[in-house]
From TrEMBL, chain A:
Molecular function as annotated in GO: cytokine receptor activity; interleukin-20 binding
Signal sequence, renumbered to the chain: 1-20
UniProt keyword annotation of Electron transport present: no
Protein's name in the database: Interleukin-20 receptor subunit beta
Name of the gene: IL20RB
From TrEMBL, chain B:
Alphabetized InterPro entries for the sequence: 4_helix_cytokine-like_core, IL-10/19/20/24/26, IL-24
Cellular component GO terms held in the UniProt record: extracellular space
Parts of the chain that traverse the membrane: none
First and last residue of the signal peptide: 1-19
Source superkingdom: Eukaryota
Functional note: Immune regulatory cytokine.
Keyword flag Secreted: yes
Keyword Heme: no
Gene3D superfamilies assigned to the protein according to its UniProt record, in alphabetical order: 1.20.1250.10
Keywords, comma-separated and alphabetical: Cytokine, Secreted, Signal
SUPFAM superfamilies: 4-helical cytokines (SSF47266)
Name recorded for this polypeptide: Interleukin family protein
Organism, scientific name: Eublepharis macularius
Amino acid sequence: MATCFRSFLLGSLMPLLVSGALLPAPQNITILSTNMKHFLVWSPLTALGEAVKYSVEFQGEYERDYANDSWIPIGECTGISATQCDITEDISATVPYNLRVRAALGTEVSRWATLNGLFNRVTTSLIPPMLNVMADGHHLLVELEHLGPAFEFLVRYWRKGQEDQVYEKVVRDSNTTVHLETMEAGAEYCVKAQTYVEAINRSSNFSQAQCVKATESKAFSVMFAPIFFVAFVVAVFILFLLAWKTCQLCQYSCCPNEGLPDTLKLTESPAGILNYRGEEAEKCDMSVHVQPPDELLRFWIHDAL
Amino acid sequence: MHPFSCIVVLSFLFGTTVTKERNMFQFGQCELSGVSFQELRDHFGEIKETVQTQDNRTDVILLKESVLLQTSVSESCCLLRHLLRFYIESVFKHYEATSNLLRRKTSTLANTFLSIKASLRQCLDRNIAAIKAVGEMDILFAWMRDINN
């Protein structure tokens, strides 16, 4: 039925086209531009169905003022059935751009329909970034939405209740998870972020703050801390006991508690042994008593008197 | 000499006399914001290989890095403005792109140069510059005479 209707329309329009009447130009040409991604969209020529092909061209300030008012075709958007075109790659300077679209059906082409006004990428809508704030043990982590190399992020974070001390971190590579802070036990931290695009020197608004508390792993360690302490004390005691016992064993086997005879300790001069009086009694043979010569002399003198 | 050889040495133009402070670039008395050198280098990077392959006059270097480095910071604003003007009015105009992609990429560079040039308004007034140029013509004549001796 639809095919019938389309062929009827084509049949009724074709004579008009052949006779010189132009194909209607695309209408409602607008630009949707969010986060530095730009799309040109237009209303389809519904009456003619998918047989209509569209082509898009752009013109920067340079082409307008220095290159004879020329237009450059966008290869990817030449002869397409879709009614939108990704123009991000070509609108990559911060100057006013003009854009135009035309329709084609067979060999017939419409006139060019131009965008109402010029488009400068500086007007793009910058949306606050999406973030995922996590607490890994006592580490405060943040994952940022990946928006491409043109985007930087300004991350602000603070401890809940200490809003006067806000810390900042600039993140250039949003591909990785960023470590922000080592959290204090039991504290809650909040994080918010905004995007910054250097090429247009503009920032988005800040995202809603997201807060996290240090996870249970911290509480777990706090709960088991006394047990760990007791185990530590017991271990130290056992170690001390072992060391003491080992020392004792060594002492009995290697260094017995038996003194050497003093005679063996005197090595200065053989004469010294004779004069030495320290050893009153010989340990091994108590019956032998050696009198030093001067003692003998004294006895002899004493006896003679 | 291929006019686009200039583009080949384009990478030396930036990052020499630039001091960056809070996303603001300072060229002497001129302040530059809303310019991403990374983006510029990326655009150039996409056509660099193709353009350098087309350049068969490798014995000539148009833009010497040493010359740019010798330029004092106070002169960097005007030097950059004049260089950009040269690229916009002479270089891109004579460059015939061999493909649609090459044409689109050079358009991006040309338009970016226009946006940078527009920010360098504090450069010397054109009349003052003209008076200076006329006044210094004797240097030109001396050089013309000496080079033949």
